[in-house]
Amino acid sequence: MSSGFSFIAARAGGARQGIEEFHILNMFDHKKGRCNMPAATIRLFLIHGDPKRLRTAEISNWNGKAFAAPRTEFDLFLKREEGGQSGVYILTGTHPDTEAPTAYIGEAEVLRDRMKAHKDKEFWVQAIAFVSKDENLTKAHIRFLEGRLITEAQQIGRFTLDNGQASGSKLPESDRADMEVFLDKIRQLLPVLGSELLTPIVKHETSAKSTGDLTCTIKGLEAKGNRTSTGFVVYADSHAVLKERPSAAKQHAMVVENRKKLVSNGTLVQDGDHYRFTKNTEFSSPSAAAAVVHGGGANGLLVWKDRRGRPLKEIEEEGSNN
Q1: pTM
Q2: How many CB atoms lie within 10 A of CB 168?
Q3: Residue 242 DSSP class
Q4: CA 322, CA 319: separation in Å to the nearest integer?
């Protein structure tokens, strides 16, 4: 579910212990003014009663099923009945050298046989797999899904992929339509299972109707961004100061370190006397985003402003009062 969508979930009354039911009432694109996915009921089964441990997820009126587990329960994950089926899987974690969010996307006709070979990959801490309850996913189907997942994850850019290529597969038109529906369900379930792999960073819309963008200015430079469901995004082509404040090294060492990482991974590139963002970049908060732009500590609630010059703090206070 992309940033800018409303995600409303409610626990169903009377659910048995270990089972949670969530009703996705609306996923609404506030900028485009339309609903992007149909309403759905998601059924989570917590095998041990703990939402971070082994669990399964299903969507009403869908023939697919997801199961997920932390690396510490990988053996239990593989022993499940679903592990003997064909499907696609995702391993996620943090790269030990770069500390960048990293993922591996794969497919297998027998999931457990292929996935157990990934125990030698150090980075991953969570495994998620998707199968068909009807056991009717063919090799062509799962290769198609793998290819689409890799392409979409690369386009979104939240994770660095440990495998950058997929063979993909050509399918008859009817099968391709079925797999696109399957892919939609994967998109719905991943955030519920704790993964933002396919959650797009909000795209910057330049049309005259786009009035919600916020601006942060310093020394004649300008950055544009906005809140997302998971933090704050700074849009591509925004600017940041080239040099940090003299006090930043001591008072805001994390800001300096973060800017270095953004330069090293190509997110910030020098453009004359300033840095330029090469892509939409999400931060944990408005202040974290503003600090990178300013080259030192900054109160994001005050420095991000709308077209009328109102700071984010005032905008949100007005919204809560209406």
Answers
A1: 0.74
A2: 15
A3: S
A4: 5
- The stretches of the chain forming alpha helices (DSSP H) are 74-79, 111-115, 139-156, 173-192, 248-251, 253-264, 286-294, 300-303, 312-321
Residue 256, both tokens: 């300096």
pLDDT tier at 251 (50, 70, 90 boundaries)?
very high
- Model confidence at 163: pLDDT above 80: yes
- Environment class of residue 219 by beta-carbon count within 10 Å: exposed (0-12), middle (13-18) or buried (19+)? exposed
Are the beta carbons of 48 and 38 closer than 8 angstroms? no
In a 10 Å sphere around its CB, with 0-12 CB exposed, 13-18 middle and 19+ buried, how is residue 34 labelled? exposed
From CA 18, how far away is CA 21, in angstroms rounded? 10
Q: What is the pLDDT of residues 71-121, one digit of tens each?
A: 999 999 999 999 999 999 999 999 988 788 999 999 999 999 999 999 999
* Dihedral over Cα of 114, 88, 83, 187: its sign: positive
- DSSP string computed for 158-217: SSEES----------HHHHHHHHHHHHHHHHHHHHTT--TT-PPPPPP-STT----EEEE
Q: What's the CA gap between 269 and 180, in Å, rounded?
A: 37
The average pLDDT across 144-162 equals 93
Cβ-Cβ contacts under 8 Å for 144 (sequence gap 6 or more): 168, 169, 170, 171, 175, 176, 179
Tokens, residue 45: 């089964």
Find the helix or strand (DSSP H, E) in which 268 lies: strand 268-271
Alpha-carbon 309 to chain mean position: 31
Nearest one of 142, 120, 115 to 131, comparing CA atoms: 142
Calculate the average pLDDT of the chain. 85
Q: Three-class SS of residue 36?
A: strand
pLDDT given for residue 195 in this prediction = 95
Neighbours of 125 (CB within 10 A): 13
* Nearest one of 73, 71, 109 to 91, comparing CA atoms: 71
